[in-house]
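Collaborator request, handled under Task 6.
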Amino acid sequence: MQSQDVAPRPAPSATDPVVDVEQAEAALVEHYPHLVRLAYLVLPPGLGRSRRVLTAHSLTQRALPRSRTATPVIPAQSAGREGDPGYALVRLRVVRTALEACLPLKRRARPRRSQLPPLLPQVWGLKLFPRSGGAAELALDQRLSALSAAGRAAYVLRGLERLPDGDVRQVLRAAGAPDADAALREADEVDAPYALLGSPEFDPCSLQARPTDLMRRRQRTRAALVAGAALVVCGALLGLPDGGWGPDGAAAPPYAENPAARAALDPGRLTKAAPGAWRTSARTDFSVWPARGDLTGDKRLLRRALAVWARPGGTVRVAATPGTPAGGPSGPPQLLYAGTVDGARVVILYDGLRVARYAEPEDGTAGAALDLARTDGAGRAEAGAVVLGRSDGNVRYLTAPWVTGAAERDLTRPGSGAMDLTLTDGVTAPLAGPAERGGGCTSWNVLQLTDGSTTRLLSDLGELVPARLTTGRPGAVKEASGAAALRTWAPYACSLGAVRGQGVRSVNAWEFATQPLPGDGSAAWVCTRAETWRGGGARVMAQFRPPGAKLAAVVAKAEDVPACGRRDPHVLAGVLWKSEGGRWYLVAAGSRDTESVRATGGISASAEGNLLTAKAEQGARADLKGTLDGGRTISGLR
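Structure tokens returned to the collaborator:
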């Protein structure tokens, strides 16, 4: 096998597109088998088939950047990858590290991580390798082993990625290959058809497994057990010095039976609110929900739920929203529900800080699950419903005792009306959840609850407590249930998928500006802010909806910033927009109290008021600054 040094990486250009980590992750997950095959083919066959497989997977999994990263504009011409800068970035990183892995280790030089055996992934006791191909595949593998690393990469980029030679040169140079032209000449000497690159012989995601050396493994296991026993004995002796004080001092031993622990795990001490407590209580949150369901007297079920909450076993699926403590309750929790839901026994408990949901199949405890969610500081609006169960894409909720009606509504169709849901002892009939669909977002179903004269909308974001939806200027928000509020939310409903699984408490949509466009009507600017139960981690997205567009586009987003929130109800954002006449413009808008807007960098322009429209070139970049009425400056959301 020939090898050569990797040339220095070219510096990123100011015109190179910037790729977010989320965009790169989406491309890596979608095209993972293809990227692993690419790494496997570039790696030297001399590594051996098993190590080559593990190294290919390791290099591909480490291709995800740590932050926003610029990538050269190199087209991805295979089907499904046209013009995706995220894919171009991860492909470049895979090729670069695969070339580095081909370099020989030098005595006095510090080895690169890609040159060492991978720490992960590992499969103990097994050797993994692709299925064997025919004579043609074997001959191609032998021919590729005779090439340099860059030559193999050139051949694979031609055949597997279907890139023309000019683009192959760009990829190789960006990956650090010292002589791209020489690599292409080496690839020209391989006369095998490119179709062989798609065969199972070179598929490191379709593997065969065989055991490692069993006798040697047995000897090493015995040696490890002896060494482990010696460490345990030494640790016990060191942990008991002459004074009798262990490292935990006067603390009780693990799993000690103390009164507080026994009370928290005793189903007989569970607290229950009176059925009408919510009518007279100063609080209207989960603490005044009565216990409901047909299994509230099943002590064995309740004991299992409490025990799993305190110490879930290895087979229990545990899920907790970000920032939610996963430990057991400090004292007897409150019982909200115990009953049968869609073939499962479900228990809902509340300890003042968290809501916990325990679920097990009706025919046993295998497959039990525990979900935890923070609910501290919840009020009447946020404590309206809890997810009882999900089945076949449908969701059932347990609603608050003050809820008098429930309905299902498609948030993307504000004029379609709501479909009433049956309420049985606070449990709703199943409604279709807002599941992600492979063909794109075509609808977003939400739960509509009636509380006296108030109507609220709640959206399932994949967690135990649904998020409340509101509209309006921060500090003066209102429920997203009126006709105008529904029209405001409709184009932005699908953007809720970006905040799934983040522990979101509420999401507000605020139309902060309407901007006339050159000859093409007016565009709407909306800021959506997702607040979390833990306080930190709020996500802000500025969205732009040109005239005639059914859905809006997210043009800027940020996390943990006060913009568009109660503490700082201001926002500024911009986007490059192409008119029907084919001209490009920078359009930017700020909230109504913005006195002026200025663009610098690739575009230099300014305007009085909160709107800016300036001619621009495709791909231009600009930094935005806004001046508020009081003289304070704000930066554009990025």
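The cover message to the collaborator said: "The CA atoms of residues 144 and 152 lie 6 Å apart. The radius of gyration is 30 Å. Please let us know whether this matches your experimental observations."
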